[in-house]
């Protein structure tokens, strides 16, 4: 947390800084990430190795669910496999279906590094070890808890990948159309969403503070680019891989001349998992262009005036464009000025004394953005850049920013910020051109009701909080896992701390700072709808209180049968609870 706070200076947190300062920011984030990842690995192992394994299977997979709701679905994770064919068994001995997505033989490396702290212990040493990415079908993983599966080498429950014609699960059917974009059939709504996930590249004449369009721009679409694709999968996991060869301008000078000269290779992976209401999209880019931006478009085919996105503790309803502020003042503008200025800027250009910057509708989000007409809608769940804009004459398209690049910390006389430079105008930022390979992940979903009934707030939280899987086997001790003494196996094969009704969105669960108890923080993610919740604990609790953020007790909560009723809270409100 301290490392994260050191990156929270006003300009550091937004990368409005020099390349040198940004290197320091990156290093602190890397250290914070590494510490967090290793703490999770350590504590996952401490729990997994304390579970009393009732089977003869020595290799275990422990599934951790960090949300207070039982969860089922197809989980994708990386692991090490001791055979080509085997079976995964749940805590009741039932076979669990799995699909091996990809694997690499690491037999010699793994087995040559195995450390045996107890040479007298007879451990299983496989004849082959693969580093693999697999998908498994999990059912009813305990709320805020764990369950342990095992690998049975004398059985099989595999579901192999093969070439298929389209992606299909309980909710969607997806094909690649002639333009190289996606046609998505929503089975529940009986509606076809056409031309989805279109990539669009355009120029960026801005700096580290502001995106700003070039005065002479050129947009390049994936739908006008060469592409090829492949579809394969199993009943659990299906994937489309589309390879685009987008030809783009090398820089702003070429863009102004409407020239294209360099290749921008982009790979779009579209994944559909059994039981998932969210379509996974992974974008891999090998960037060679300067001062440009890459976005991805999703079309709701609706006419809307507002969009919904969330912040840290709730939902915001925003207008798609600021019509009042952007009211046209055409008097005084020459015809040439009207041609040269981007359409939306004609609104304010005649009276810039009113504005330092135009009221553009590029907006931030915390975890999702949605468009709806109350009967159906779409939502995008970004896991990279949290920036979007709603475009289209009917307010029908969500344009999500994947990345933008620029060459200076500050620039003068931008279209979106005339006159002054926000940052140092002489400091070049060549690293901010991002001339490297990059990956971006996001989810896409549809719904057939209003924003509240769709529970997009809960869905986005689940999507961003996947079930984690920890594998343990003695032969992995060494380079892969730091060797430790064996733990006494005293924990049950499955366990749950508490469960909610899943009305409010969970924000934090932690040990209290100054007391012997747990702090639980939840918030209302709905649109102007007062809601409460109920928490039921799987251990004895004696006291419960509402607290402030300093964890000071404010009001006692009645405890009945180890359950508490949380009072209804209003739009964008959060609540903090102490449990003892």
Could you give a short description of this structure?
With 580 residues, the protein is mainly beta. The chain is 11% helix and 39% strand. The protein is globular and about 85 Å long.
Structure description:
The protein has 580 residues and is mostly beta strands. Among the domains are: 12-161 and 466-496, Immunoglobulin-like; 328-356, no CATH class; 499-579, Immunoglobulin-like (Sandwich), CATH 2.60.40. It contains six helices and 37 strands. A ten-stranded antiparallel beta sheet has the order 8-15-16-17-18-27-24-23-20-21, with helices on one face. Strands 1, 3, 4, 7, 28 and 29 form a six-stranded antiparallel beta sheet that branches. Strands 14-13-19-26-25-22 form a six-stranded antiparallel beta sheet, with no helix packed on it. A hairpin with a 3-residue loop joins strand 9 (167-168) and strand 10 (172-176). The longest helix has 30 residues, at 19-48.
Blueprint (SSEs and pairs):
Blueprint: H1 2-6, H2 19-48, E1 60-65, E2 71-81, E3 87-89, E4 95-96, E5 98-105, H3 107-113, E6 130-141, E7 145-152, E8 162-163, E9 167-168, E10 172-176, E11 182-186, E12 191-196, E13 198-203, E14 220-221, E15 226-233, E16 237-248, H4 252-256, E17 262-273, E18 279-286, E19 292-299, E20 306-311, E21 314-319, H5 335-340, E22 363-364, E23 369-372, E24 377-382, E25 387-391, E26 397-404, E27 437-447, H6 456-463, E28 468-472, E29 494-496, E30 498-500, E31 505-511, E32 518-523, E33 531-537, E34 544-547, E35 553-556, E36 563-569, E37 574-579
Antiparallel strand pairs: 1-7, 1-28, 2-6, 3-4, 3-7, 5-6, 7-29, 8-15, 9-10, 10-11, 11-12, 13-14, 13-19, 15-16, 16-17, 17-18, 18-27, 19-26, 20-21, 20-23, 22-25, 23-24, 24-27, 25-26, 30-33, 31-32, 32-37, 33-36, 34-35, 34-37
């Amino acid at each position: 947390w301290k490392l994260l706070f050191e990156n929270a200076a006003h300009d550091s947190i937004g990368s409005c800084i020099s390349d040198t300062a940004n290197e320091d920011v990156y290093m602190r984030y890397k250290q914070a990430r590494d510490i967090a990842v290793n703490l999770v690995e350590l504590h996952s192992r401490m729990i997994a190795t304390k579970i009393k394994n009732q089977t003869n299977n020595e290799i275990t997979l422990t599934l951790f669910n960090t949300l207070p709701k039982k969860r089922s679905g197809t989980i994708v994770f990386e692991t090490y496999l001791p055979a080509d064919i085997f079976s995964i068994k749940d805590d009741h001995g039932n076979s669990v279906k799995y699909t091996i997505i990809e694997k690499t033989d690491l037999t010699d490396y793994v087995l040559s590094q195995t450390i045996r702290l107890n040479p007298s212990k007879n451990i299983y040493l496989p004849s082959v070890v693969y580093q693999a990415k697999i998908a498994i079908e999990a059912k009813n993983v305990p709320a805020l808890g764990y369950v342990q599966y095992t690998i049975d080498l004398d059985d099989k429950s595999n579901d192999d990948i093969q070439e298929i014609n389209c992606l299909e699960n309980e909710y969607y059917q997806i094909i690649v159309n002639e333009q190289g974009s996606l046609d998505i059939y929503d089975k529940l709504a009986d509606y076809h969403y056409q031309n989805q996930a279109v990539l669009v590249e355009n120029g960026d004449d801005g700096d580290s503070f502001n995106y700003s369009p070039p005065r002479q721009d050129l947009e390049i679409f994936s739908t006008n680019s060469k592409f090829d694709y492949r579809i394969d999968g199993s009943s659990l996991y299906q994937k489309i891989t589309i390879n685009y060869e987008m030809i783009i301008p090398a820089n702003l000078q070429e863009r102004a001349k409407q020239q294209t000269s360099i290749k921008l290779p982009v790979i779009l992976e579209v994944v559909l998992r059994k039981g998932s209401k969210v379509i996974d999209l992974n974008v891999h880019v090998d960037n060679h262009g300067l001062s440009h931006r890459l976005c991805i478009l999703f079309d709701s085919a609706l006419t809307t005036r507002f969009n919904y996105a969330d912040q840290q503790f709730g939902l915001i309803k925003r207008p798609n464009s600021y019509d009042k502020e952007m009211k046209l003042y055409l008097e005084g503008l020459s015809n040439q000025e009207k041609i040269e200025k981007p359409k939306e800027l004609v609104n304010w250009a005649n009276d810039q004394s009113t504005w330092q910057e135009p009221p553009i509708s590029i907006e931030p989000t915390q975890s999702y953005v949605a468009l709806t007409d109350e009967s159906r809608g779409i939502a995008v769940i970004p896991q990279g850049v949290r920036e979007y804009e709603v475009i289209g004459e009917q307010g029908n398209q969500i344009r999500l920013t994947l990345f933008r690049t620029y060459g200076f910390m500050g620039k003068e006389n931008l279209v979106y910020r005339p006159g002054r430079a926000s940052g140092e105008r002489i400091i070049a930022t060549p690293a901010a051109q991002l001339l490297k390979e990059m990956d971006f992940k996001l989810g896409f979903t549809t719904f057939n009701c209003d924003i509240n009934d769709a529970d997009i707030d809960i869905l986005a939280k689940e999507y961003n909080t996947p079930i984690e899987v920890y594998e343990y086997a003695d032969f992995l001790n060494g380079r892969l896992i730091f060797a430790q003494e064996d733990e006494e196996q005293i924990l049950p094969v499955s366990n749950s701390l508490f469960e909610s009704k899943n009305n409010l969105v969970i924000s934090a669960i932690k040990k209290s700072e100054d007391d012997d108890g747990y702090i639980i923080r939840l918030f209302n993610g709905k649109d102007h709808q007062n809601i409460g919740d109920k928490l039921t604990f799987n251990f004895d609790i004696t006291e419960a209180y509402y607290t402030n953020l300093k964890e000071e007790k404010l009001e006692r909560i009645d405890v009945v049968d180890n359950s508490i009723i949380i009072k209804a809270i209003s739009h964008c409100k959060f609540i903090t609870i102490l449990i003892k």
